[in-house]
Amino acid sequence: MSKNEYDILIIGGGVVGSMIARWLSRYELRLLLIEKEADLCMGSSAANTAIIHAGYDPVPGSLKATLNVRGNAMYNQLSAELGFAFERPGDMVVAVGEEEWPNLLALHEFGKQNAVPDMHLFDAAEVKKREPHINPNAIGALWAGTTGIVDPFQATIAAAENAVMNGAEVLLNTAFTDFIIEKKRVVGVKTTRGEMRARWVINAAGIYADAVMHKANTGKDFKITPRRGEYFVFDPADVQINNVLFPVPSAKGKGILVTTTVHGNTIAGPNAQVIDDKEDTATTSAGMDEVIAGAQKLIPSINPRFTIATFAGLRAMGNAACKTPGVNYHADFLIEVSPEIGGLINVAGIESPGLSASPAIAEYVIEVLKDAGETLIEKKDWNPIRPARPRFRELSHAQRQELVKLDPAYARVICRCENITEAEIVREIHAPIPATTYDAIKRRTWLGTGRCQGGFDSPLISKILARELKLSELEISKRGEGSNFLFRETKSVEELER
Asked: 86-87 and 5-11 as β-strands: parallel, antiparallel, unpaired?
């Protein structure tokens, strides 16, 4: 094969595309993943509740339900192999008032049909015992012990890095523009960095997956409608809960929840606003009020003055019909070889529980390829392990001392809120998928996420990035093109020293 020829090309570097790349790297294939942004995990995968759902709420018989439950069961092994943070605190769907109890029972029945393990109905006393700050009007809850929390950035990047370690290629800052089609078959793509040919193209473009498939004149009836969700992030010193807490869901979705995170913060959100603009991730005053009101329904003591950050994310709400006979559901995952053109696999409409289902989606894509006649030969030397990198703040004093002996840069703390060292930052800059922007380092290390929100560390990071990448500080950006920190030099060092 020539330089720009591949067996399989994946469009989209979110958690789904990255998991697919990792699963495919097991086979004797030349793989390429392209991502339009300066880093992976910058779309829907970056802005969500970071929950690995148990699987009791998807419609029974749907692909969402099947892949949610399967994906959830895969996370223990996956986190051990790829070295990312994952915990199982469990969740409670809390009924506030007698009128919500029938809907809770219906949810419990969904869970049983979906074969969700470790589900129980709790009375008010048990709910209060597990979550002391819960709404005193709570009458009971549905408990799901398999619900987990994860660092979605770590999971996405670790999966893609493992793919790279096993021979896959990742191209950032590479936007898809069109398909190359010959004899009614996709044989490659056109990008902002030239043409790349491939025997198969997998469309995992998230919120833009419908636009991508329409470029091939396929899936014209499929549409993704962006649904914006807004969130609060609270200081862990001021707001602490023990479990993932959901309200009884409505037709709009799972509702505004309150959850703990693997980093110790509490998150509240999201609301659900159907919008037209696929780039609109702004937070709004009305939306924030709605989120706080929803959070206080579960935990009345939550106060917005404890907020350290707000954000919004978009969910790719699709209109694919469930293919299980007798199941009338029209918001299912769409994962299939395009029936209208060869060489294209669409993985679209991956909204919640997409993060939970992502490893199972990758598994499913393997089966789709096999069913399409692709012969997949396993590598004899495939390595599923992506070693976890040391996290200074999680180590004992003795362990820290040993690291400092190996590299004195571990003794230089750059982010004091989160206790992130220079050595950790440098390792990410030179990782298998290099972190070349401030936000890329932030996603990988959790730097800049504490009370100061990067106010003190960002000038230091600019200097470190410039030094390690051998660039001018004027070339260093927050998130990629158009977000440079510095625009011009106002005074020279010599002038300042006078």
From this structure: unpaired
Place of tokens 């392209």: 34
Which pTM value belongs to this model? 0.96
Asked if residue 364 lies in contact with residue 393, where contact means CB atoms within 8 angstroms, the answer is no
Residue carrying structure tokens 């199972």:
360
Rounded-to-integer distance, Cα 12 and Cα 79, Å: 22
* Token pair 């679209």: residue: 348
For residue 399, the SS3 value is: helix
Given a contact cutoff of 8 angstroms between Cβ atoms, the answer to whether 354 and 16 are in contact is yes
Owner of token pair 């840069």:
409
pLDDT for 43 equals 92
Considering 53, 263, 397, 430, which one is annotated as catalytic?
53
Contact 289, 179 (CB under 8 A): no
Q: Quick check: bond before 270 cis, omega within 30?
A: yes
Packing angle between helix 438-445 and helix 152-165, nearest 10 degrees?
Answer: 100
- 269 CB neighbour count, 10 Å cutoff: 29
- Give the model's pLDDT for residue 1: 66
SS3 of 111-159: HHHCCCCCEEEEEHHHHHHHCCCCCCCEEEEEEECCCEEECHHHHHHHH
Residues facing 253 on adjacent strands: 250
Where residue 453 falls among pLDDT bands split at 50, 70, 90? confident
Pairwise CA distance, residues 254 & 115, whole Å: 19
91-145+225-314: CATH topology is D-Amino Acid Oxidase; Chain A, domain 2 (3.30.9)
Token duo for residue 346: 């669409």
Give domain 1-86+149-223+318-388's CATH number out of 3.40.50.1110, 3.90.1720.10, 3.50.50.60, 3.90.980.10: 3.50.50.60
Residue 484: strand pairing partners: 477
Structure tokens that stand for 314 in this block: 């978009």
Going by C-alpha positions, the residue among 453, 444, 440 that lies closest to residue 424 is 444
Model confidence at 58, pLDDT cuts 50, 70, 90, reads very high
263 has catalytic annotation: no
